[in-house]
Amino acid sequence: MKSRIVPFILVFTASALMASAGPRPRYQLAATIDYELLTFQASAHIQVPAVAGDPLRDVSFFIYANYAGIVGDERRRNISVDSVTLNEAAIPFSLTGPVLHVELPEPMAAPFTLSLNYHGVVPRVAAGGDGGGLAGLMGTSGLDLGSLLGGLENSTGSRRHTDYGLYTYSGGMLSLGSYWYPQLAVRQDGRWIDSMPEGVGDVSFSEAGDFEVRLTVPRGVVVAASGQADDQVIGAPAGKRMIRATATGVRDFAVLMSEDYVHAARSYETGQNSVTVEGFVLKENESQLERAIDVAGRAIQIFSQRFGPYPNSNFKVVEGPIRGGAGGMEFSGLTSVASMLFEDWSKSLGGISGGQGLGSLDSLLAALSGGAPGSAARRQSPAPSAPGNPGADLLGSVLGPQMEMLQSLFEMTIAHEVAHQWWAIAVGSDSQRAPFVDESLTNYSALVYFEDRYGKVAADSMRDLHLKTAYSAGRMLAGKDAPANLAAAAYAGDLQYAAVVYGKGALYYDALRRTVGDKIFFESLREYYRRYSGRIAGPRSLLEILEAKAPQAGVEALYRRWIEETHGDEDVGNGNLMGIGDLLQKLLQGLGSSQKP
Ligand SMILES: [Zn+2]
């Protein structure tokens, strides 16, 4: 999913394949938001498709707002279900954590519609608190300084749930993500895939569905939502707006809103269609609005050419209160990008260094980005590495190479999230049990954006900065290499997950491309996209296509080596790329003893 549009009439160029995906669930959702209390009342009418030869006796849904990873009082639910009815008759249900289980009065062999009434509350988190700031950010590249520092406290590998700020109010933004409605579980081999989400990474796993959504909000609130919105005041109470939106053939329906969003839109021609890219950012970040739209629009053009047509006419890039190790989150036709990525890095690093007892790094960063010692930037502010601040001093000695990585995170993250529209949203996969299927390919795809926009040298530099460093730093801090095809919960923690799935797993595609050549590599990705759009791909689905196109190339052996086995140290290196090993070792020493290294 874990991350997931249009005049909501989606233009599916791959319509022949969509048809093969079978009937889709239909969601009619209505919610009235109390923006003062951060509560809502909602109803859902969900048409559950019939499964041939498998009459349904029960149905499972996920209400991710109740996932243990969402912040709040663990004894209280964020969403409670008031009633479930079938043909106007109440039927029994149970709600255990995020899993809503409904017993049907009789086996159902034909599609049927369940009606639910429910209400929710959205947790409020102080901006910048609880892992905010750089410490709360892990680029979608899988690595940044914040996650490394955060990981130091957790490097023994304890498994924990992570709250990414996807269902929260913070910093003047209300994010409901796709966690605010009951999402039909995936049914495979006669059973619902409804085990409790656990471990790191995304939780969402869904079939493509059709949505018709009505949201009632105060007039002053700007809504950024999946799909094509049709703003209607008619029928809304005084002082309110009703927004109606529809989305067809999408994995989920995301909603964010703020009184402080400014927005803009621009059209991009992909060669197949015209896509309107809308950006929503807080007023204070308005200077970044055009850049966010531009990166998303160019990424859509590039991926449409490389992988196949973007299936919608609309995409939104939305600043959100994301934290806890994620830089962005993909939804259908929409990506939410962490506020932190819009901020000034020197302030962010100042905050993190303060949090780590290292004092302000503002002037250090100014010096690093502004040129040699003695430059104007350095002279204008007091040196942070003054005697008595060994932490900042040691950071200063090794942080230079990190600057490029930090400065490219904004673009890397948006390119990554846009690539998810192909891998995760169009081609579905199980983000809990096989997260590498979408994440590794998505992280590699971000390099394709850099390659096609800036050239091979730039792409190689991004590969080293973001992918190789993710692996080698994770190796240093999180211990062993691991197979890339494990379930999210099987990794020892965020760092190992990032190292293996976002680092080594993405570099597998670099090796694969060199092995089979550009032509077969991209033809296979296009076929994979065509064949699995609107459906769910398994771990070996792409491999099967490659095998058929290049039976002699040894792609099976390459897959075994990179995905199923553990040769990361030989293939990627466990070493000291970009000086990050020095940085971290010195930081550990500095934090542990306050001795000068
Ligand atoms: Zn991702």
Notable features of this structure?
alpha+beta; 597 residues; binds zinc ion; 8-stranded mixed sheet; Neutral Protease, domain 2; single chain
Q: Could you characterize the architecture of this molecule?
A:
With 597 residues, the chain is an alpha+beta fold. Among the domains are: 342-402, no CATH class; 407-580, Neutral Protease Domain 2 (Neutral Protease, domain 2). The protein has 15 helices and 23 strands. The protein has helices spanning 15-20, 145-152, 289-307, 345-355, 362-370, 376-380, 390-398, 400-419, 436-454, 456-478, 494-532, 541-549, 555-564, 568-571, 580-593; strands at residues 26-34, 39-48, 56-62, 79-86, 89-90, 93-96, 99-108, 112-121, 168-170, 173-177, 183-184, 186-188, 191-193, 209-218, 222-225, 228-232, 240-250, 255-258, 261-269, 274-282, 314-320, 328-331, 334-338. A hairpin with a 2-residue loop joins strand 9 (168-170) and strand 10 (173-177). Helix 4 crosses helix 5 and helix 9 runs antiparallel to helix 10. The chain is globular. Residues 1-20, 129-159, 352-394 and 590-597 have low confidence and may be disordered. Bound molecules: zinc ion.
- Evaluate the radius of gyration: 24 Å
Distance between the termini: 43 Å
Proper CATH architecture of the domain at 407-580: Orthogonal Bundle
> What does the overall shape look like?
globular
- DSSP summary, beta strand count: 23
Mean pLDDT: 80
Q: Assign a percent range to the helix content.
A: 25-40%
Please list the strands of the largest sheet in the order they lie side by side.
Answer: 5-4-8-2-1-14-17-16
Task: Write out the CATH superfamily name of the domain at 407-580.
Answer: Neutral Protease Domain 2
Strand content: 15-25%
CATH class descriptor name of the domain at 407-580:
Mainly Alpha
Query: Which regions are unreliable across 5 or more consecutive residues at pLDDT < 50?
Result: 1-20, 129-159, 352-394, 590-597
Tally the helices.
15
